Amino acid sequence: MVASRNGSLASSLLLAAANLLIPLSILVFATGFFPYKPFLPGLAEFEPLEYGPPPKAPFDRLVFMVVDALRSDFVFSEESGFEYTQRLIRDGSAVPFTANARSPTVTMPRIKAITTGSIPSFVDLILNFDEADTSSTLAAQDTWLSQLKAKDTGKLLMYGDDTWLKLFPETFDRHDGTSSFFVADFTEVDNNVTRHINDELEKDDWSLMVLHYLGLDHIGHKSGPRSTHMPGKQREMDGIIHQLFNALETKSHLQSTLLVLCGDHGMNDAGNHGASSPGETSPALVFLAPKLREISSRYPAPAQPKNEYDYYSMVEQSDISPTLAALLGFPISKNNLGAFIPEFLPFWPSSSDKVQILIRNARQILNIVTAAFGGELFDLQASVDPCVSISSDVDELACEWRRINSQAASQAGAKEVDQAWLSATSAWIRRAQDLMSSMASNYDMSRLSLGQGLSVAAVIASVASLGLQGFCQAGFLMPLFLLATSYGPMMFASSYVEEEHHFWYWTSTIWLAYLGVKEVQRCSRLSSISNHVLALAALRLIRSWNQTGQKFAGESDTVKRFLIPNPEILWALITLAYVVVTFQTLQSLSGLPYILATSLMPAVFLATFTFKLAFTAEDAPELVVGFAHDLLDIFQGPSLIFRARIIFGLLAVLSGFAIYRAKTGGPRASQSSVELVHHLCTLLAMTQSRATNIPLFLLSSIILQTLQSTTLSIAEITATSIVLQYTTFFAFGGSNAISSVDLSSAYNGISGFNVFAVGALTLISNWAGPIFWTSATNMLLLQKYREGKTDAFKNHVILLTIFVSMSVAFVIAACTALRTHLFIWTVFSPKYLYCMAWSLGQHLLINVGFGSFLFWVGT
Predict the structure, then answer these.
(1) Which residues on adjacent β-strands are paired with residue 211?
(2) How far apart are CA 17 and CA 698, in angstroms?
(3) Residues 88 and 248: beta-carbon distance below 8 Å
(4) What is each CA distance from 424 to 336, 401, 402, 857, in whole angstroms?
(5) Considering 424, 439, 454, which residue would you say is the last residue of a domain?
(6) Interval 566-593 mean pLDDT
(7) Is 469:6 a contact under the CB 8 Å cutoff?
(8) DSSP string spanning 281-301?
């Protein structure tokens, strides 16, 4: 007896250690894998060159207009709403490009690339979601904003996305920032920017006006690039261009003003961004000014892309920085890796000026190259000649540098610069840019190794915990270990990571079929056969609900093919889902007076259903038609924030009642209390889910009912929980791409950014399916507990911890082994971030934390 207690205590301590080692390994590895890249401090200054003073700038003022998620085809295609902008392109007043935005395609790192000309660290992706973060500020770094500030020719203004205010604190003299994460707003978020324009255009005390519009990005997140809102928003942005360009033409103090229109990133076919699909990495870039008619070649517009989104010339987003430096007359930023865009060279007829612009750009990048590889190869006076034996990209770069640098002086003195030299110099800058941009991050290998060791220690501790607890107590473990050992090696293949949902879809189908066959063999009842066939049919529907992954993200699925074209069917299913869950909740309210219970449930139904109706009317109004629109007219009134708070309040009160009843009413009350909490959890998940995903809760409930009538061991319950958590995560539209993170419900019930509230709501909305199955799993475990398996939950947590720790160990190993892989920042690093979310959020917070609470309520 004493030995048994000691073994159980040791098992518990090892389990606790394993669950502490998991987050520790993740955080230690992350500090070595996502370090801040060092930047050269201070502001660049014009170095004296033998070719004379710096070239005179054709512009003295800049309007920099960012339209968030402005994909290239939104401006340049035949379907574009930018008709006025296209007219300017045709008459030579605008020069168009497609800018290559490198992954991660989210706002903060893209603004860093645009303003510094450098390649931001992938860690900026994480900081992008924390509006309170100031650690990634660019205040101490050399950017074209700091150069304009130092030039002191006028005030700096900023209106729009407050990311600029975070990145450039105390930089702007006049500003009005807007939160970028309240994605339900398409209108006010842009009107808040536009209302400042007229007054500022009348003033002549500024040299820079940054305008960052968010509405188009919000439309994409809500309803995709083909939304009915998109053409109108494009026309609105085109109207802003019209207003600005008209001022440039008519106001004397704006005659030497350059207007730049660009997107910070694009969007994929689902309207999201963060990954590396062509749509996400191909924002539009247009330089506009009446002066451009002097040099422009007059491009056709609308245009046809060379590839999917490659319109006109493709440039790097970092090229904006050195190009603005030359056009506005200040030194190129010290950390720039961008190349001057040669289409603007005709502004300087002098050969000396042309050579200066390119040579200054080349020497500035050369400083970064020599800092990385040493300067001997690039020194013209050195005894080593890199052209003798070219064995690497660096040797080739050094050899070509000697050639173009040795010819620079003669080219500067010539009447016309040799086009071959211009092309060779631009090509050298581009090669140096590619070399430095593709260099691996400055990984801290000691931290990577320590993180790997801690993750392996977590695996050992969790397996040892199970050994001390008794392997046989959990039931047949082979399926669970097969699941872990087959899933882990997939992390080493980029295609498997991108299309991970297929693994879970087939695994869940095979697993449910196995459980069905096993149960039929055990009891051979017709009802059992029909239940498992129905469960498999429900699973098949769940799998087809939302197309996900990378290769076929925009392809047809149940939502696109049947529900969106037939919103009446969608609302019938949504209504049915709310009715069923509300009725189940009512059945679980034993202990409340009948009149109170029957009065409370209509209130819960109306609060949850009308919120979803009103939210969808704002989110995707094209879905609110027919009887849904009639109901919306009837229930018009409170704001969405107030409605959401009412729901959260009702759910909190009922949860409190469930806990009170469970702890004072005996075993029977505990059972109904757990069922009540499960239904309340389902209502919360439905509140945080998109309208099109709500029928998935009905299908999941069908599978749950089948499982409740099936005899399962603890190991089988755990395996079922894992496969259905992952399956529903992907079926709800999740993927291993940052672009699939859904922020549409992140502000339900709150009026401003709060890191904890927004974080919790985002977790619930993106992991709604897994959270449902966490709650459902605990109902199954409580059945085992009532059958005498008192260690049911502990054994379940041990098995979960084994799977999670093995997953973390494999992902860390894959990221370490493939750190120089082409897809390290586009596939494997996002997978690591999702691994963090699954292990820290879903495992520790939901499965262990919330699951412990549910089990406590039931016991």
Answers:
(1) 65, 159
(2) 38
(3) no
(4) 20, 10, 12, 73
(5) 439
(6) 91
(7) no
(8) T-BEEEEE-GGGGGT-----S
Separation between Cα atoms, residue 814 and residue 824, nearest integer Å: 10
- Indicate if the pLDDT at residue 786 is higher than 60: yes
Structure tokens at 698: 């009905």
Q: Quick check: 282 and 309 in contact, CB under 8 A?
A: yes
Q: Would you call 308 exposed, middle or buried from its count of C-beta atoms within 10 A (0-12, 13-18, 19+)?
A: exposed
Q: Are residues 73 and 166 in the same domain?
A: yes
244 and 186 part of one domain:
yes
Task: Name the nearest CA neighbour of 110 among 94, 133, 127, 96.
Answer: 127
Residue labelled with tokens 């199955």:
773
Dihedral angle, C-alpha 89, 90, 91, 95, nearest 10 °: 30
Do residues 159 and 210 make contact, with C-beta atoms less than 8 angstroms apart? Answer: yes
- CA–CA separation, 451 vs 32, rounded Å? 9
Do 213 and 304 sit in the same domain of this protein? yes
**For residue 135, what pLDDT is reported?**
41
Positive or negative: CA dihedral 35, 41, 44, 50: negative
Task: Report DSSP state, residue 542.
Answer: H
Q: What share of the chain is helix, strand, coil (3-state, %, to 5)?
A: 65, 5, 30
Residues 148, 151: Cα–Cα separation, whole Å: 5
Give the number of other Cβ atoms within 10 Å of residue 131's Cβ.
Answer: 17
The residue type of 722 is I
Q: What whole-number distance in Å separates Cα of residue 362 and Cα of residue 326?
A: 13
Helix (H, G, I), strand (E, B) or coil at 763: helix
- State the total domains in the chain: 2
Tell me: do 152 and 274 sit in the same domain. Answer: yes
Q: Which of 341, 360, 382 is the last residue of a domain?
A: 341
- In three-state secondary structure terms, 158 is strand
d(CA 162, CA 131): 9
d(CA 670, CA 857): 7
**What was the pLDDT predicted at 781?**
93
> CB-based burial of residue 593 (10 Å sphere; 0-12 exposed, 13-18 middle, 19+ buried)?
exposed
Report phi then psi at 768, rounded to 5.
Answer: -60, -45
- Given a contact cutoff of 8 angstroms between Cβ atoms, the answer to whether 340 and 357 are in contact is yes
Reported as a pLDDT band with limits 50, 70 and 90, residue 761 is very high
Average pLDDT, stretch 47-74?
Answer: 89
Pair 150, 90 in one domain = yes
Range with the lowest mean pLDDT among 246-250, 382-386, 724-728?
Answer: 382-386
- Predicted pLDDT of residue 632: 86
Q: Let me know: does 175 contact 125? Beta carbons within 8 Å.
A: no
Q: Is 129 in the same domain as 231?
A: yes
CA 677/CA 858 separation, integer angstroms? 10
Domain that holds residue 398: 348-439
Amino acid at 812: I
Average pLDDT over residues 527-542: 92
Given a cut of 70, is residue 5 above it in pLDDT?
A: no
Q: Locate tokens 């292990």: which residue?
A: 839
Encode pLDDT of 71-90 as tens digits: 999 999 999 999 999 999 99
Range in 137-141, 395-399, 773-777 with the lowest mean pLDDT = 137-141
Which structure tokens are listed for 515? 């459980």
Residue 388 three-state SS = coil
CA atoms within 13 A on the CB side of 550: 20
Do the domain assignments include residue 354?
yes
275 with 397, same domain: the answer is no
796 Cα distance to chain centroid = 32
Query: Residue 104, preceding bond cis, omega within 30 degrees?
Result: yes
* 571 part of a folded domain: no
The CATH number of whichever domain residue 77 belongs to comes to 3.40.720.10
What the block records as the tokens of 421 is: 């030299």
Query: 377 in a domain, yes or no?
Result: yes
Q: pLDDT digits over 258-290, tens only? A: 999 999 999 988 777 877 788 989 999 999 999
* Same domain flag for 284 and 384: no
| Full-model pTM | 0.79
Q: Is the dihedral of CA 343, 346, 348, 349 positive or negative?
A: positive
Q: Is 13 among the domain residues?
A: no
